[in-house]
Write a structure and sequence with these properties.
Helices cover about 25% and strands about 25% of the residues. The chain is built from 18 helices and 30 strands. The two termini are about 30 Å apart.
């Protein structure tokens, strides 16, 4: 379906009973986000907020809340886009199979951006303070744009074909920002905008930034899409939306998306930063206050009857989970073609995406030897940890495909058990210390700083994982409660974390207390604050374990050793996943706001039968 605007998209969803209008007045401070979260949890429809307190503009959210709805939005182009992404990965295919690819010709044409003279978005102008001031979580530093498309150009190669369109959060107010004149621009490592700002800074020039909100749904998807090198977000948006990306330059030289609902233009000057945050983020914790680029606002354009688009982020799964599923649907085959020997990789959503990667690769280095061990998959792991956003991961579990051709990375419990059955803990853990991790991850104790570890498994099973704890099994005091989370993984409730010295003493107690006990069916011990919560389900297990630990500081082992600078252990691995003083607070909804949302589910209210 080639939507010309967000309005057409909303009307199409409504006709097909995939969108609900909320007619009651709603407060953008916490209430709208709480409504969105409640509906998303029920896998409910897209939401159109007609009456927003303090703003004359309506808003829409949860457009991409289910994979089925996302596929519906792009039902006429999705298969062709998969072919185009496939072609970009291996263009020789077109030459070898001309008849197979002939039907993508028009799609390819629609990928070309179109420069226009007039545009709906220039209908009117407004101020930042008149936009919906949506605050998602109680400790957020102010209202944020959570579904922006941030456009910048390379000052050395100007023009739309070398531009970057990314989704980086925008703080509209609060902190030290001058209302209506200044906003905060937050972006993470390895982002295209960072390259553009670096070049502008080097020349002492301000960077022109255009923030698009709304527009056809292909536009925000293009902004988050990890595209192959050389494929522009604007061309992708045109091809996916079956409508060329329309743009023009205003009288100040800013690029404007003609079909957007809102466009905020502004400049970022070298070394001008202001504190940005806190912000409730997709790891399930707040990202804290840090200096980030300051954007001086020039103009705020809007079309006639515009719609503000937003989402809510928090502990997965959320709407960005569905985004990720759609991205995998489109480009899941691209990365294995770029890394020789890689069959699949999964950034585990339940663990906050960046903290944990699962991968499957080939292990073919020494087929002439009887004993198989990780070799080729270690080479592949280095490729993965050097690849774009994947390089921000902390934990990489990689398995040899030859050991189980039917294994897949999206079955979290099954994949972990396969790994833990086969790993030799004296040999198969490989650390990278004092390196970069995700900006939003505070387990390392400093911004962007932490460590990584590769868990590699190849060969025959080395242990049978316990399905239940044997009679009489107990953990030493003060570790009073332990539960099997999945076979072979023991969640151990532990004293409150105090410091590194106390932790070392506690690990010694575990080593001594387990001495002489049979631990043959345990591969991983997770020290946690609440064993019941951690072991309750697989999502809790991976969220607690991998968001609350820094490999270099928090991995220990029963009977551990260091030999020639290699760390290993002869018993189970221990991961200390307790809350630590330097960790960011987790996201907790406001009970009063939750009670207020309940009214919308009553008989006769807009969300009756949905929440």
């Amino acid at each position: 379906m080639g939507y010309k605007s967000l309005q057409e998209c909303v009307a199409d969803l409504e006709r097909n009973k995939l969108l609900v209008r909320i007619k009651e007045e709603v407060d953008p401070h916490l209430e709208m986000a709480a409504i969105h979260l409640r509906v998303y949890e029920k896998q409910g429809p897209a939401l159109f907020f007609e009456n927003i307190k303090g703003s004359r503009f309506p808003a829409v959210s949860n457009l991409f809340g289910t994979l089925d709805r996302s596929k519906f939005l792009f039902r006429d182009t999705l298969e062709k886009i998969k072919v185009l992404v496939d072609l970009k990965s291996d263009p020789v295919k077109a030459a070898k199979n001309p008849f197979k690819y002939v039907n993508v010709g028009y799609t390819a044409f629609s990928a070309l951006p179109a420069k226009v003279r007039t545009a709906p978005v220039t209908y009117g102008q407004t101020k930042v303070s008149e936009l919906p001031q949506i605050v998602n979580w109680p400790m957020d530093g102010g209202p944020f744009v959570t579904m922006p498309q941030v456009y910048t150009e390379d000052i050395e190669k100007p023009g739309i074909m070398n531009a970057n369109l990314g989704m980086y959060r925008i703080q509209l107010g609060g902190n030290d920002y001058v209302q209506d004149s200044e906003i905060g621009l937050h972006y993470q490592l390895h982002r295209g905008i960072g390259v553009h700002q670096t070049k502008a800074n080097a020349k002492g020039q301000p960077l022109k930034v255009s923030i698009f909100v709304g527009g056809p749904p292909a536009h925000p998807l293009a902004a988050v899409m990890p595209l192959p090198e050389g494929l522009s977000e604007m061309t992708f948006a045109g091809a996916l939306g079956n409508r060329r990306f329309r743009y023009f330059y205003d009288d100040e030289g800013f690029c404007i998306s003609a079909d957007a609902d809102f466009v905020i233009t502004g400049t970022v000057y070298p070394q001008e930063n202001k504190p940005e945050g806190p912000f409730g983020d997709h790891l399930g914790y707040y990202s804290l206050v840090h200096p980030f680029p300051l954007m001086k606002v020039h103009k705020v354009y809007h079309r006639k009857d515009p719609i503000w688009s937003f989402t809510v982020v928090g502990r997965p799964p959320q709407e960005d989970t569905s985004f990720g599923a759609l991205i995998h649907e489109i480009s899941g085959s691209a990365l294995p073609k770029e890394i020789h020997g890689l069959h699949e990789v999964n950034a585990v959503d339940a663990a906050g995406v960046h903290p944990l990667l699962f991968a499957i690769g080939s292990e073919r280095y020494t087929p002439y030897l009887k004993e198989r061990k990780p070799q080729e998959i270690l080479t592949i792991s280095n490729h993965i940890l050097g690849k774009n956003q994947l390089s921000l991961a902390k934990y990489l579990f990689i398995s040899a495909k030859e050991d189980n051709p039917d294994l897949h990375t999206h079955d979290i419990a099954k994949f972990m058990m396969h790994m833990l059955e086969r790993m030799d803990f004296t040999r198969d853990l490989h650390f990278h210390t004092k390196t970069t991790i995700d900006t939003l991850d505070y387990s390392g104790g400093d911004l962007n700083s932490g460590s990584k570890v590769v868990f590699a498994a190849a060969g025959e099973k080395k242990r049978n994982l316990w399905q239940e704890l044997p009679p009489g099994f107990s953990s030493p005091r003060p570790f009073t409660n332990c539960k099997l989370a999945i076979p072979g993984v023991l969640a151990v409730e532990s004293p409150v974390y105090v410091g590194e010295r106390e932790t070392a003493e506690q690990v010694s107690i575990l080593n001594e207390g387990f001495r002489g006990q049979d631990l043959g069916g345990i591969a991983l011990i997770v020290l946690c604050d609440d064993a019941g919560f951690t072991a309750d389900n697989i999502n809790n297990l991976v969220w607690i374990t991998f968001t609350r630990s820094n490999p270099s500081h928090d991995i220990f082992g029963i009977d551990s050793f260091i030999e020639h600078k290699h760390w290993g252990c002869r018993g189970p691995v221990i991961i200390d996943a307790r809350k630590k003083p330097h960790h960011a607070p987790e996201l907790i909804p406001d009970p009063a706001i939750e009670r207020r949302v309940d009214r919308l589910g009553l008989k006769g209210a807009s969300l009756h039968g949905i929440i």
